[in-house]
Amino acid sequence: MAEMKRLVVLTGAGISAESGLATFRDPGGLWQRFRPQDLATPEAFARDPDLVLGWYDARRAQLAEVEPNPAHLALARLERDWPGDFLLVTQNVDDLHARAGSRRMVQMHGALKRVRCTACDARHDWQAALPRATPCPACGAARLRPDIVWFGEMPLEMPRIMAALEAADIFVAIGTSGTVYPAAGFVRMLPRHARSIEVNLEASAVADGFDELRQGPAGTLVPALVEQLLCAA
Ligand code: APR
């Protein structure tokens, strides 16, 4: 793999599972307990803003109780020590990659610890609860919402992501079910020569698009994969 220098990593909720954050579609996952259309759509927010704000407040508060796990830390090491281009694209809205030290990262579905003003479009880092009618620190309008990409909304930084995929030599997808687009389609956007590896407890819905499946927990398999990639770089 020595000549392969451009690496793109995609992560999903499964990488944070061993940190104690619920995934969406596993048994007991968030979409087993709540209906996405009641919580993660613009219509839900318009219909019942207090319910939606309360749900994101609870998920944001939970971040104080969890820590990055060895998989997050291994990806931060990979970014630091990888000799070529590196981009981490995460679907996750938790802060565990950032707390593990990842920097060259795109949070394509937004971030729990950020809010956005729908009046002036300013984004603000946000640690606490977000009661309805909280004034925007920039323009004062009471139009703040979670800076989360809801179903039916455009993911963030897609041009940057597409450019990285089209030039990738290696693509690694970790802990994602391959059921939500556009992320589920990333593996089919790679150059023909690229090598693709999936790390998951079980084969994802797009496993047939990958060269290889490493089946097992990310907390164990990702540090080993990082070691192997760095040794071969
Ligand atoms: N190690 C590796 N993989 C794991 C682990 C683990 N410890 N635990 C769970 N997984 C895998 C599951 O097998 C599953 O394939 O993680 C995946 C989690 O899938 P989802 O719950 O569907 O999460 P994700 O793929 O990130 O969802 C994508 O859907 O609801 C939207 O915006 C939300 O970003 C989310 C998107």
From TrEMBL:
Chief location bin: cytoplasm
Function as written in the Swiss-Prot or TrEMBL entry: NAD-dependent lysine deacetylase and desuccinylase that specifically removes acetyl and succinyl groups on target proteins. Modulates the activities of several proteins which are inactive in their acylated form.
GO MF: histone deacetylase activity, NAD-dependent; NAD+ binding; protein-malonyllysine demalonylase activity; protein-succinyllysine desuccinylase activity; zinc ion binding
Subcellular location as annotated: Cytoplasm
Catalytic activity: N(6)-succinyl-L-lysyl-[protein] + NAD(+) + H2O = 2''-O-succinyl-ADP-D-ribose + nicotinamide + L-lysyl-[protein]; N(6)-acetyl-L-lysyl-[protein] + NAD(+) + H2O = 2''-O-acetyl-ADP-D-ribose + nicotinamide + L-lysyl-[protein]
SUPFAM superfamilies per UniProt: DHS-like NAD/FAD-binding domain
Annotated active site: 109
Family: Belongs to the sirtuin family. Class III subfamily.
Residues that bind Zn(2+): 117, 120, 136, 139
GO cellular component: cytoplasm
Domain observations: 2 residues (Tyr-56 and Arg-59) present in a large hydrophobic pocket are probably involved in substrate specificity. They are important for desuccinylation activity, but dispensable for deacetylation activity.
Cofactor(s) needed: Zn(2+)
Binding note for cofactor: Binds 1 zinc ion per subunit.
Pfam family, one: SIR2
Keywords: Cytoplasm, Metal-binding, NAD, Transferase, Zinc
Gene from which this protein is expressed: cobB
Binding site for substrate: 56, 59
Domain Deacetylase sirtuin-type: residue ranges: 1-232
Listed name of the protein: NAD-dependent protein deacylase
Keyword Iron assigned: no
EC id: 2.3.1.286
Binding annotation for NAD(+): 12-31, 91-94, 175-177, 200-202, 218
First-tier enzyme category under EC: transferase
Keyword Metal-binding set for record: yes
Top-level division of the source organism's lineage: Bacteria
